[in-house]
Amino acid sequence: MYLKPVSTIDLRDHLASYLKLVADTKTSLLIKKYRQPIAIIKPLTTKDLPLSSPDIFFGFLSHTDDETGEEFVNRLRRSLSEKNYLKKLARP
Known about the structure:
Elements: E1 3-7, H1 8-13, H2 15-25, E2 28-33, E3 36-41, H3 69-76, H4 80-90
Parallel strand pairs: 1-2
Antiparallel strand pairs: 2-3
């Protein structure tokens, strides 16, 4: 695996072009700060993604570990009766 060394300053100034390089050529970047390696940016593979479900993106928002994304959205939605009550309160 080839690692192209890139400084943090250069990465900051040309991020879009480096991300395009990684995506197009499958080259990995070795990010250096003060000449010391601190991170690697590599092309994303399907093995890197745990699930293809959008539910995994809502997991950090739930108050329990078992809540799915759909359950989270439903918990946030207000019932029709609550919406009507709030409309009555908003009228002058």
